[in-house]
Amino acid sequence: MSRLTISMPAQMNEWVEAQISTGRYGNVSEYFRDLVRRDQERREAAINELRALLDRAEESGVSDRSVAEVLEAARQEARQKGLLRGDN
């Protein structure tokens, strides 16, 4: 197993120590290994979701709409979801 040294502000260190004091983690290394595992799982899930979206898009075929029409539909959907405002 390799060794890693990190520096962090006192407030973050207090947070880490508080997480360990709950008893869920035996030491700092266990806490950070758990963080890394969770990050890896999140990224893998995001990649799998993207792959599924790409597969569905490919299976849906070629659109007869113009690029401008597709972009406008995407903008409208984004506005409805609150992701865009105003003239965007």
UniProtKB/TrEMBL annotation:
Protein's UniProt keywords contain Transmembrane: no
InterPro entries: ParD, ParD_sf, Ribbon_hlx_hlx
Protein's GO biological process: regulation of DNA-templated transcription
Keywords: Toxin-antitoxin system
Gene3D superfamilies: Antitoxin ParD1-like
Entry similarity comment: Belongs to the ParD antitoxin family.
Protein name: Antitoxin ParD1/3/4
Natural source organism: Alloyangia pacifica
Source species taxonomy: Bacteria, Pseudomonadati, Pseudomonadota, Alphaproteobacteria, Rhodobacterales
